[in-house]
Amino acid sequence: MSLERVLAELAGRYPSEDRMVPDLDRITALVDLLGSPQRAYPSVHLTGTNGKSSTARTVDSLLRALGLRPGRYTSPHLDSVTERIAIDGEPLSEERFAEVFDEVLPLVHLVDARSPVPMTFFEVLTGMAFAAFADAPVDAAVLEVGLGGTWDATNVVQAGTCVVLPIGLDHVPLLGTTLAEIAGEKAGIISEGATVVMSAQPVEAAEVLLRRCAEVGATIAREGLEFGVRDRRTAVGGQVLDLQGLAGTYDELFLPLHGGHQASNAAAALAAVEAFLGGVPLDVEAVREGFAQVRSPGRLEVLRSSPAVLVDAAHNAHGMTATVQALGEAFSFTSLVAVVACLADKDVRAMLEVLEPAVTSIVVTSNSSPRALSADDLRELAVDVFGEERVDVEDRLDDALDTAVRLSEESAEFGGAGVLVTGSVVTAGEARTLLRPDAARG
Q1: Do 342 and 214 share a structural domain?
Q2: Is it the case that residue 17 has pLDDT exceeding 50?
Q3: Residues 428, 349 share a domain
Q4: Could you tell me if 256 and 305 lie in one domain?
Q5: The domain spanning residue 326 has which CATH number?
Q6: DSSP conformational letter for 172
Q7: Helix (H) or strand (E) holding 311
């Protein structure tokens, strides 16, 4: 298959997302050779610790509802690498993905020949996204950073609209050991004269972002001041929102995602689209349509019922906190068993400590990532947090799912059994493939 050939050729260019190459020389050289495709369309550029993909998908959906044709670039992927590059709401087909790769590859080789370090997996994909969007063509690009901001390959764009989602501690020490250091890296996407949509931030991070905006003459729009969530109500399959935008108010918006964090993400997406379109009020019915069509696979996604099996890609303590809060709000389980597999370079103990009060017990396992924490090592951490009697271990994810379903059904009352699969984007993607192969490209 063409895609298998492409993946084999890309394999030697890993890793990318788990390390930061502190320069833009290679991606700059590539886009120059490509004829600067990233300048063929305006962009919305998103950074932050959590919420980037969900917010990017919401921006994409709103733009489509308003009659525009967006290109969307997100990472990492849940099932197929083709998910990362989407045009008009649909991932590239495997055939088109391979075509774009073949078009870009000779220029990648030229860059490799001129550089002591070959282009990374993420850099190549970023160049492919820019080229695919220009060729489509698209009316706008919605770009999620891969890591940080300043040195991220996506930062060869100078987006007029930037979104900075909540910042927490993650990718330490690659991005820094304090919120201020991490915010400094993420602030690097803010270019001169941009409009910056800033979600609610810890004071330490907000100070850095505001300083950057002042330095480059960017306009700042802050959640809770210039835009935000006025009201929200839990609804079947999601929530109903009343939002304050930059240019108007928008009520009775159904969002098929759970939790206060997703409401805040939706408010940021709305403000970003308003800013992108010149700061004018948007058609309310189009906004309602855009929100209703949002899908964010792997984010408290219900894949099975009886018992309910949910998949969530939380992979740090900040994200796990949002997940736990949303669980308590949107679901009423009498027994909830967690299946957890994590990457070894994460603060796994912190995630487990957040998760512990929300679940009855935990089944620890491992995923297929070369960075995965072993099931035995994860068990040691889980026993410290949960106690030995609440921890089971399985080497394989499919066996862990079977064990969790059995444990949940054994201890549930009145049919309130549930299973939550979480701990990593890789874990979420593999669980989706096991539970619902038809959902893999959702």
Answers
A1: no
A2: no
A3: yes
A4: no
A5: 3.90.190.20
A6: T
A7: strand 308-311
Contact 418, 336 (CB under 8 A): yes
346-390 confidence digits (pLDDT tens): 999 999 999 999 999 999 999 999 889 999 999 999 999 999 999
> Which of 275, 292, 309 is a domain's end point?
292
Q: Does 265 lie in the same domain as 317?
A: no
Q: Which residues pair with 391 in a beta bridge?
A: 362
418 to each of 54, 315, 327, 404, 438, how far by Cα in Å? 24, 20, 11, 9, 21
3-state secondary structure of 371: coil
pLDDT at 1: 60
Closest by CA position to 406, among listed 361, 345, 341 = 361
3-state helix, strand, coil in the chain (%, to 5): 45, 20, 35
Amino acid at site 64:
R
Cα dihedral 359, 362, 366, 367 sign: negative
Residue 249 φ/ψ, nearest 5 degrees: -110, 150
For the whole model, what pTM was predicted?
0.93
pLDDT attached to residue 168: 84
Domain membership of residue 311 as a residue range: 301-439
DSSP, collapsed to helix, strand or coil, labels residue 280 as coil
Among 292, 321, 350, identify where a domain stops: 292
Query: Same domain, yes or no, for 155 and 288?
Result: yes
Cα distance between residue 277 and residue 99, in whole Å: 32
Q: What is the pLDDT of residue 436?
A: 78
SS3 sequence, 28-45? HHHHHHCCCHHHCCCEEE
Q: Reduce the DSSP state of residue 141 to 3 states and report it.
A: strand
pLDDT digits (tens, 9 = 90+) for 30-89: 999 999 999 999 999 999 988 999 999 999 999 999 999 999 999 999 889 999 999 999
223, 228, 233, 314, 348 from 285: Cα distances, Å: 23, 19, 19, 32, 43
Specify whether 235 is located in the same domain as 339: no
H/E stretch holding 265 reads helix 260-276
Tokens (6 digits) for 67: 């009659």
Structural element, H or E, at residue 65: helix 52-65
Q: What is the DSSP letter of 155?
A: G
Q: Are residues 324 and 269 in the same domain?
A: no
Question: Where do we find the tokens 């004269």?
Answer: 193
Number of domains in the chain: 2
Q: Is 350 exposed, middle or buried (0-12, 13-18, 19+ CB in 10 A)?
A: middle
397: amino acid identity, one letter: L
- For the residues 316-343, what does the mean pLDDT come to? 94
Tell me: do 103 and 9 sit in the same domain: yes
pLDDT averaged over the chain?
A: 93
